[in-house]
User: What shape does this take?
Amino acid sequence: MVTVKIKNDNLIIKVFGELDLVVAKEFRETVDKILMDKPVKNLILDLSQVSFIDSSGLGALLGRYKLVQQKGGKMSIFGANPQVFRILDLSGVRKIIPVFQTEDLELEKRRANQ
Amino acid sequence: MLSKTTVNRQFKASYQLLNFLRWDNLLFGFLGFILAQSLLLGEIRPFAPAVLGAVSVWDKQKRWGMLAGSLLGVYLIAEGAEFWSQSIILLVVFMVLFNQFVLGRQQWIIIPSMVTAIVFIVNSIFIFFGLGSPYGWVTTFFESFFAGLITLVTLTSLGAWEKRQRNIPLNLEDKISCFILGLGVLLGFGDIYLLGVNIQSFLSRFAVLLGCFLGGPGGGAAVGTLVGLVPSIGGNFSTVTIGFYSLSGLLGGVFQSLGRIGILIGFTLGNLMLSMYFAGSDQVIMTLVETFLAGVVFLLTPLSFFRIEENEPEETEPIWQETEESAQKINLVSGVLSELSNAFLPTETRVQNMEENPVNKILDETARQVCDNCSLRSICWDKELAKTYRSLVRVCAKGEKNERISEQFFPYDFQRRCMRLRELSIALSCQLKLFKQEKYYQEKLKKSQEVVSRQLAGMAQLVQGFSKILKYRSATDEELAEYIKSELLDANINVQNVKVIENSGGDKEIVIVQRACPERNWCMQFIAPRISQIMDRTYTVKTTRCPTSGNKTCTYYLNPSQTYAVTTGAAVAIKEGSSVSGDNWSCLSLPDRKFALILSDGMGAGEEAYAESNTAVHLLEKLLAAGLGNQMAVDTVNSVLLLRSTKDSFATIDMTVINEVSATAEFIKIAACPSFIKRRTQVQVIKGKSLPIGILNHVEPEYFQFPVQVGDLIIKMSDGVFEALGGNIEEWTKVIQALPQEEPQNIANYLIELARKSLHDRIKDDLTVLVARIDYRSE
Assistant: This one.
């Protein structure tokens, strides 16, 4: 499941459950539609409720990163649990997308809500 | 009326007669006639029976002409007992060897022996019955002996004749035999005069001129000496002729560079000088006439006749030159490819041109389409240009977000003023769409250009590698030493001297002299591995004289030693509900004694994941096998996957390239989970953090290099396996430390089984394990 919040030109997406093939599809479609229709620039991804992420989820994340970058925006991820964080780390996602763990969650949430 | 048989017989007889009148039969007849007159040492005539004997076993037709010519020659020069003995010898040789067609090696013994025996027996009978003098026994002995030898020589010459007809190059033995036979013919012409010209002198001069042309001063003098000896061999002992011909040959040869005319002038000068000294005025004139005739024939003889074997290739140097030339050409091709690669690389100026203020372009084009014929044009685009421009830019910005331009997007006063608002919004929408499409295709084009550029750079690198291999393969020891020195220099290793020595076993030992590096072990650290790479074998330092105080140079020997081999094992388990694994793996040998293990995980699962990882693995296999560098190969695969796919799909790459010469393993990790090296009870973890390929423009693979030893195990696994133990590296380290197996295949099976049990047989992702063990290579 995916929830959406738009603040200024930031799109905040919260994903629930496992970011696998099925959820990745929903996530991709939702984000693409909003990026197309609404005047948003940046994408902030809340993964605090994601327990697992597979390669399809990674592909969806990287694909959105490409899209946001083309529009001149930025993307960040926060709230990743240790397992998800490790996968994001191993796959090199952290090299291009800032990923904040739970301790930075409140801080990042605050920043997102500003 | 003639019967049919009679007509056939007559026809056959006339056909045979015509056949006998062929030029080559007549030539052999003439040869027989001349050789019958060849007199050796003034007393013996061994040439005719010897040559007849050889021809009798060699050719059925030519022997008849030869017999007839020889008998005619004997009839003209001999009389009495000599005539009879010579004639009988010829007839007996002909009859005895009539049915002898001995082939193979036996002919070299049997035919000369038979000719020797016949000449000896017939002459002995004549002496025995008192028709010859007792001194005749001596001449008989020599005549029969020489006849045997000349038979052997003639058989070789006839073989040379056949070789010549089949365009087979003649060897030295063939040439010498032909020359001896030629001397025999020259001897035969000793007493033959044509219009007052001695044929022997004429032919001798011609032979010397030929010698000058083909062999220069040396050849001319050598042929001159030999033909000068002919009168002496024939019995007219004269040293003058030897000096005469050899000096003339020498002078003729000196002018070889001036061509045939030059040779002739030099030769004539020599003739004149010596004739003045040794002969009277009549003989000088005759000498000049003979020289003139020989010169005319020499000038008229076609060049192809002289240069029979000129085209024979030299064996060593030209091949090396060819290789050198080929290597240079390959280098040039590499340079061309490199230039092409640069040409395809999108330069900054080109990129800038592409991105040059697109809004201006859009607005200009829209104004041209809509406003050109508008009566308010001068107001909008001249008087209030800035205002109009700002309004339209704002509209464009809104349009970009909303995918289309509505009339409401325009400012209120603009809406009021513009008479063609609807047309303007449509034109602006179209231009904006066009611009987006153009931008999209330009981006695609740029990416494609980058791919082509990278491919060409890779090709240039490959081709340069071929040129290096070509140079190395054809190098001699000295050249190899130079090559090693330059290669070391390329790697910033400066050595003073390199020597390559081939030992008795055919192995190449390398001696290096370099500046001393006390206790830093450059020899083992840098030079031995580099030389191993160059020589494609493991080289180790055999003996070294490490510098003592005051000694500034260090000399050491490098010897080839055993190289390594890789034993592999692989095991796979497929995700539940899927028919194919999204993981793909490959183990392959690469050029330069390298071995690659590739493991790729395609995004997702099933067919799509399989297609992605399969393309990545197969493409990598092909590129690496072709000799492309690791980075270049990965870049190419990334570009191909990126261009091919429109979705957000990708693949991970976990590649290990084991150098079987230097015993090092290079790990290339692209979004892959950790790999492990197990040495006895120690486990080393190799962990990378690189983005996957096929999704972004650029990938930056992470490289790790580790030395490996015999017995080391390299374990690679897909993320499905790694996550089976919660992705815990420490857990995995413990498992690998306590592996109960040593065989790679057993280990792979064991690890898959372990993952399966840990997941309680609920396999959520494809599982693949690759295991490699380093062994000694048995050469």
